[in-house]
Every structure is written in structure tokens, then in C-alpha cells.
Write a structure and sequence with these properties.
Length: about 450
């Protein structure tokens, strides 16, 4: 991957010899004029060198100057409505390739060309990702900039399609620079340092990541996998160090640590997107399906592929139901029981758990299966896996008793099962009809 960035840098360096003379004549050249010049330059070396100057100039901007830059893009690099209407009328009157081409170019924002040219520069792709991240943070208060985000996202979907991505297995032999990024980017189950990472790269674990050639050793997304016997239901057991923790060790309770021949299940327990500037561009569906192929090749005996997933929206949804006196899901006594959730360390109290377990598992099953955002599940993780063709397999009581697990889902975790022969069928039913496939064990919770 570094060869690609080195090649781009060599082109930029070749064009730099043309820049000093021009800059001496115009030392006050603005970022705006650089952008306009970049859009009109024809030579590859010169264009790449100017793109490099744009990247350096943008990276030097403070927050106020970044907003000014985005407003400049809005004013000076938006499509011209009058030209669009004229070209549309010409196309309507005379439908030819020439009028179609004119309409196409009129509709396409000039900033499309600008972003594509910036992408030619060394670090250009990374700069555009950071640019979009900064832009996303402004949209609530600057909604007129949404068109710029639309254009950037449209281009990035093309630049980061599956054909350009490489899947790499992460191991203890992976360069330390990349391993450090895995620790930093872990978004589901935080790693406290190198010891945690070493456990997650142990012999009964696998980690895979997608990379893009323009980003060197910067991962886009990575998935952590545990090889276990039977379905895993508790993430603390799954992450436990087998040398210091004797909880359910290697006895078929789904926490791994066994011999390769004993593994029959692959558990995807953490999927982390690494680039916030690529928000809304999905890699996870490709990643899971390709990792399944890799694991089946390495371990033909694997019979099950499933996740051990968080339920990030459950506690928030539950609060809304509690606050709604008309909620048909709760009766008076149940509301009283739910007040136990405010008791410190309630999950360590057998009496509290006895009262809460049947109630919370029923409500959580209802949340996952019936709570909607439009036509799709309200829970974002459910939307992702069900859209990939998984089914809801099982709810796990106190599957995550970390502070975050208790805060977001009352400690509940869910297994989404990937039954390979039904994945495409489930995907089509979900996308076209909103149908959710569920296992019989989960079905019982809905009654």
C-alpha cells in the first residue's frame, strides 16, 4: 500500500519545480484561487503539485477558517441553477447525446472535479476524509452546506467500493503502528493496552481489517472473532485472560481457550469503524462475509457463525416507555420493578435479578423485533446485521456487565446468527418486506 502513496508523492514532487516561479509572482495567492487553478490545470504533474498545495493550505486552517472555506465551496463551486434549467430544456427539446452530456455536466457540481483533483495529492484522500468529518460537525448549524457533504459522500462511495479494499489478517506480527491504531479505534469493548490486545490476538482469536491503498496502514474497519465451542453469551468471559481467569475455562461454555479441533463456532464480538469521516459508507457487510470465507477455509469444522452484539438503544427506548404512562407494554407492578435499575450494583443482587430478568428480556425482545425507525429496526446494530441477512438468535441476560453495557442495554447482549444458506434469503426478505427472521428461542420471548 505504501508503494501507491510513494508513487503519488513522486508525481507531486515532479510538478513542484513549476510552482516557485508562479508563487514568487503571486505570494498572496488564496486557497480559493488555488482551488480554481486546480480545477483548470491540465498536466498531471502540475495538477498533483497544486493539489498538494491545496492540502497543505487546508490543513493549516483553524475552525473559523474551515467554515469560511466550506462557505467558499458553497458560493463558488456549486452548480448553476440557470444553466441546469437551460440544459434541461435543450435536452427536452432535442434528446441527443450532446444535450445529455451538457445536462450531465451542468448538474454536476464543480466541487466534484475539485475533490477528485485534491484526491490526487499525497495525503489527499486522508485530508478529504478529515474534511468531511469537520463538515459533518457543522451541518446542524450550517444546513446550507449539506450539498457539499452529499458530493463528498457520493465520491467516497465510489472511491471506497469493495474492489479497492484489501482484507488483511491482523496478528502480533502486524506492524506496531497498525496495532496501536486498533487499540485506539476499538469502539465496542475498550482495550486498556497491549495486554488486552495480546489476548484478542491469541491462538483462539482472529482479527481482520479492511485497508485502502491510498491510506497506507490506516484501517477502515476491523472485526474481532472468537473461536469457541457453542454459542457465546457473555463478553467478560470471552475477553478473560485464560492464564488469570478460571471462569468457564475451556469447558464448552463459549469462552474459547480450547484446542482448534474443539472449535465449532465463530463469534464476531466487536466490529469497529475507524474513520468517522466515512460515516454512512458501509464496509461491514462485505467484511463479515469475506471473513466467514476465510474462517471456513482455515477451520472447516466450524458449524456456526454468529455475533455477540451490543444493544445500544435499548436503555434509551426503555426510559421513554417508562416515562409514558400510556405504554401498553408496562403494568403498574412492572414499573415498580424497573425502579430497581437505579439501585447501585443491582446486577449483583439475586433478588433484583430474579424480578428483572423476565421483564427486561421480554421488553428487549419487543424492542429488537417491533420498535422501528421508519420501516427498519430502531436499533442501529440490529439494522446492520439484519440487513446483512442475519437472524436474531438469542438474548443473553447480563452478557455485558461493564459500566457501558449496563448503561446502554441493562447488561443484555444479543446473538445475530449468520446461517450461510439462508443469508441471501433473509437479506431479500428484510430489504423488500421488512421481514425479520428469528430463532424459536427468541420467538418465545415475544409471547
Amino acid at each position: 500500500m505504501k508503494k501507491f502513496s510513494q508513487w503519488v508523492s513522486s508525481i507531486a514532487e515532479a510538478g513542484r519545480e513549476f510552482l516557485p516561479r508562479r508563487n514568487r509572482q503571486d505570494k498572496k495567492q488564496t486557497l480559493s484561487s488555488l482551488c480554481h487553478e486546480l480545477c483548470t490545470s491540465k498536466g498531471e504533474a502540475m495538477g498533483t503539485a497544486i493539489a498538494h498545495e491545496v492540502v497543505k493550505a487546508y490543513q493549516a486552517l483553524n475552525d473559523t477558517e474551515q467554515l469560511e472555506f466550506f462557505n467558499m465551496l458553497y458560493r463558488e463551486f456549486s452548480p448553476e441553477p440557470k444553466q441546469i434549467l437551460e440544459c434541461a430544456e435543450a435536452f427536452k427539446q432535442n434528446t441527443t447525446m450532446e444535450t445529455y452530456r451538457a445536462l450531465y455536466h451542468a448538474v454536476e457540481a464543480p466541487r466534484h472535479r475539485l475533490f477528485s483533483r485534491i484526491n490526487m495529492a499525497p495525503k489527499g484522500t486522508a485530508t478529504l476524509i478529515k474534511m468531511r468529518l469537520q463538515l459533518l460537525s457543522l451541518l446542524d448549524k450550517q444546513p446550507h452546506l449539506a450539498g457539499i457533504d452529499y458530493d463528498l459522500k457520493h465520491l467516497m462511495i465510489s472511491w471506497f467500493n469493495r474492489g479497492f479494499l484489501t482484507l488483511e489478517k491482523i496478528s502480533w506480527r502486524t506492524p506496531a503502528q497498525t496495532l496501536e491504531k486498533l487499540i485506539a479505534y476499538e469502539a465496542v469493548h475498550e482495550m486498556s493496552g497491549w495486554d488486552d490486545l495480546r489476548r484478542r490476538l491469541a491462538d483462539d482469536r482472529r482479527c481482520f481489517a479492511f485497508f485502502h491503498p491510498a491510506l497506507d496502514d490506516e484501517p477502515l474497519i476491523f472485526v474481532e472473532v472468537a473461536l469457541v465451542k457453542g454459542m457465546a453469551g457473555n463478553v467478560q468471559e470471552l475477553l478473560a485472560d485464560p492464564d488469570t481467569d478460571d471462569v468457564a475455562a475451556a469447558n464448552g461454555n463459549g469462552n474459547g481457550n480450547g484446542h482448534h479441533s474443539e472449535f465449532d463456532t465463530a463469534i464476531f464480538y466487536s466490529i469497529s469503524n475507524c474513520q468517522e469521516g466515512l460515516r454512512g459508507i458501509s464496509f461491514g457487510n462485505f467484511l463479515i462475509k469475506q471473513v466467514v470465507l476465510e474462517l471456513r477455509s482455515e477451520f472447516p469444522q466450524l458449524k456456526q457463525f454468529a455475533t455477540l452484539s451490543p444493544i445500544p438503544g435499548f436503555r434509551r427506548w426503555l426510559k421513554q416507555e417508562i416515562d409514558n404512562p400510556e405504554s401498553p407494554l408496562l403494568e403498574g407492578e412492572e414499573r415498580e420493578h424497573l425502579q430497581l435499575l437505579d439501585t447501585p450494583n443491582w446486577h449483583d443482587d439475586p433478588t433484583c435479578c430474579e424480578l428483572l430478568q423476565p421483564l427486561l428480556t421480554r421488553l428487549c425482545a419487543h424492542y429488537l423485533y417491533t420498535a422501528k425507525k421508519g420501516q427498519k429496526p430502531l436499533d442501529p446494530v440490529a439494522r446492520f446485521h439484519l440487513g446483512n441477512g442475519a437472524r436474531i438468535a438469542r438474548l443473553n441476560w447480563l452478557g455485558d456487565t461493564s459500566a457501558n453495557g449496563l448503561r446502554q442495554s441493562c447488561g443484555l447482549l444479543v446473538n445475530y446468527g449468520y446461517e450461510l444458506k439462508h443469508v441471501e434469503e433473509n437479506h431479500e426478505a428484510f430489504v423488500n418486506e421488512g421481514q425479520i427472521n428469528i430463532a424459536p428461542e427468541f420467538q418465545k420471548l415475544l409471547k
